[in-house]
Amino acid sequence: MRREITGFSNPTVKYLRSLREKKHRKQARQFLAEGLRLLTDARESGRVPETLVLSTARDAHPLLTALEEAVLAARGEVIETTPDILAKITGKDNPQAIAGVFAEFDTSLETIERDAAPIWLVAQALRDPGNLGTMLRTGDAIGAGGLILVDDCADPFSVEAVRASMGAIFTQRLVQARWDEFVSWLRGGSGQLVAASLRNAVPYRGAPYAAPCFVLVGNESQGLPEAYEAACDLRVTMPMKGRADSLNAAVAAAVLGYEVLASL
Amino acid sequence: MRREITGFSNPTVKYLRSLREKKHRKQARQFLAEGLRLLTDARESGRVPETLVLSTARDAHPLLTALEEAVLAARGEVIETTPDILAKITGKDNPQAIAGVFAEFDTSLETIERDAAPIWLVAQALRDPGNLGTMLRTGDAIGAGGLILVDDCADPFSVEAVRASMGAIFTQRLVQARWDEFVSWLRGGSGQLVAASLRNAVPYRGAPYAAPCFVLVGNESQGLPEAYEAACDLRVTMPMKGRADSLNAAVAAAVLGYEVLASL
């Protein structure tokens, strides 16, 4: 279905705008993503938006046409609107010419196959949506299977996380689980759990990594709880030459993830 | 000097609050930093705030006493105020119990000694203050000398950058320069310029890094201009196993920086 929206007070505008807030995303089980590149990554990964919102000021592009066709074929809705209204929906002064509304994915542990990839990233109580999106992006780069979010993390479907993922929200698998659920699932099969840690750790370079390797980083300000580290198969540490005793969580995951990639 | 501020409309409150905006920071050549740990890093690195703002709700702490004494010894000002007013100044709902106003540093190339460290990080047109602060933090961790900001970057003295640096704004040297100034300075002595690049690049692992090694990353969305890459001594690339063709800028700097650290 196609339609045009020209008024700011249209209830669909109000609804789309509400998806910027977690409470409304949870109710609707939908989230927003913007930009032709990101939506094309989604389409090519088999994720077609339920609603596609296009700016009347857009330029024609074959990838845009492909998206519109995919949405209509899936009986989704294509909405045309003004750049001003699109800016109101996305909350950006200079919005991209296109946004999509997607159904939230199933993020249960049962949806992943551990042997599908040699590396998985795991984050515990990660609070910053930018860090979360960056971890997804890094996961894509190192050929990880996905990101497992343990305990109370930032919402992976927030606009900030989706943006920072640069499309990896659609290409990486995403899991949300409690720590005990995750450990119980992990110990039900093969898998090495590796913590970036300062306690009782070996140097991260040349450590005996083994696939499937689950790379675990902790909360931005607290790090990992001691009991979680103790449950790991391997604790590794990166050199810290200066005054600080930790790295940014997404940076730690990336430095460690690339080391695992090189050694497997 | 010591004084107490109890009113929101006090002109000092207005002034301190204005330092959250770049325009006012530039006029005043001062910036804000918060938190006992960060301000202690500053003090131990020889940077004492010109003004120290303390919450009346603070707990006593020997490091706090040391800070107060250092500020008063340097003829600075110690201001006590309510948690509400401190929240207004820092723009955080739950502010730390302490904030400091620092004089901006001299960020000219002449202030650094290239042989003081084996690694220097260089960012070109880096727009995100969080990425900038994270690069400073990573620089501290890998024993870099500092961060050289080339072309039009985010303001390193913004509250976001200072926060993300976790204190490294005080321990790393900071330089701001135009590209031609930087290259001309670099070529006036020893120094290897290494770009994280996709063009004409060798694998980043095992590349022939040499100290002092200047690790260069480009703008978040554009990457490095081709001419800048061509001016580098070495172009290296990280594996990209997925759909994306780039990493977050701060992540790229960290993965490459740790590799350089391991190989020097």
TrEMBL record, chains A, B:
Highest taxon of source: Bacteria
One of the record's GO molecular function terms: RNA binding
Protein name: RNA methyltransferase
Domain RNA 2-O ribose methyltransferase substrate binding: 32-108
InterPro entries referenced in this protein's UniProt entry, alphabetically: Alpha/beta_knot_MTases, MRM3-like_sub_bind, Ribosomal_eL30-like_sf, rRNA_Methyltransferase, SpoU_MeTrfase, SpoU_subst-bd, tRNA_m1G_MTases_N
Keyword Methyltransferase in record: yes
Family stated for the protein in its record: Belongs to the class IV-like SAM-binding methyltransferase superfamily. RNA methyltransferase TrmH family.
Taxon lineage: Bacteria, Pseudomonadati, Pseudomonadota, Alphaproteobacteria, Sphingomonadales
GO cellular component, one term: cytoplasm
